[in-house]
Design brief:
The chain is mainly alpha-helical and 221 residues long. Helix content is 72%, strand content 0%. The chain contains 8 helices and no strands. Helix 1 packs across helix 7 and helix 7 packs antiparallel against helix 8. The longest helix has 28 residues.
Length: 221
């Protein structure tokens, strides 16, 4: 139960800080800036890895949990409870942000700024790159340690900078689901539920292949 509570709390903090930075940027007419938003996302992810990595693995993202399961690093019986905890934490954060900023309609929702297909492909690639890094800096299904926190937080930041203005750089179904549900902006939500899962799962065989090659040819190192 502590693992599920940790995922709930971790995802709550992630969404509260991350989408909160988007909302505050809108409220202050851009004072936070894209760079500030990217830093907020990256820093909060790093902080959560340090805070709950040794408890739940700090997945705080259904796509990450699914990819760990596909890669046989995570027990199947825990997948649904993890995803439920993550989505519940995200929705709770969006509800609190709705209370704090009742005049803000989007609540930091992710919407395509361009064609739907463009955002769909971009979300796949962004999540693939994120999961590739996650798989290569973690042990089992746990994200912990200085290396994991810095690497994963850094990837989140530069991907928000690169993809944020176009697709919203969600890379996390719970991150997009919560503000969409609470803010009532369900259009194109499927993009942000499906694409991150495809991208994260696609990273698994790539990482597995590279690691298997490394194990077979240790002298190459």
């Amino acid at each position: 139960m502590k693992k599920y509570i940790a995922e709930f709390v971790g995802t709550f903090i992630l969404i509260f800080v991350g989408t909160g930075s988007v909302i505050v940027n809108s409220v202050t007419d851009g004072d936070v800036s894209l760079v500030g938003i990217a830093m907020a996302w990256g820093l909060v992810v790093s902080a959560m890895i340090y805070a709950i990595g040794d408890l739940s693995g700090a997945h705080i993202n259904p796509a990450v949990t699914i990819a760990f399961w596909v890669g046989k690093r995570f027990e199947g019986r825990k997948v649904v409870p993890y995803i439920v905890a993550q989505c519940a934490g995200a929705i709770a954060a969006s509800l609190l942000l709705r209370f704090l900023y009742p005049d803000q309609e989007s609540l930091g929702a992710t919407l395509p700024d361009g064609t739907v297909m463009q955002s769909f492909v971009l979300e796949i690639m962004l999540t693939l790159m994120l999961m590739f890094v996650v798989l290569n800096v973690t042990v089992g299904a746990k994200e912990k340690g200085i290396t994991a926190g810095l690497a994963i937080g850094g990837v989140i930041s530069f991907e928000v900078l690169c993809g944020g203005p176009i697709s919203g750089a969600s890379m996390n179904p719970a991150r997009s689901l919560a503000p969409a549900l609470v803010g009532g902006q369900m259009q194109h939500l499927w993009v942000y539920l499906v694409a991150p899962v495809i991208g994260s799962v696609a990273a698994v065989p790539i990482s597995h292949y590279l690691h298997s090659e490394r194990e077979q040819t240790p002298e190459a190192e």
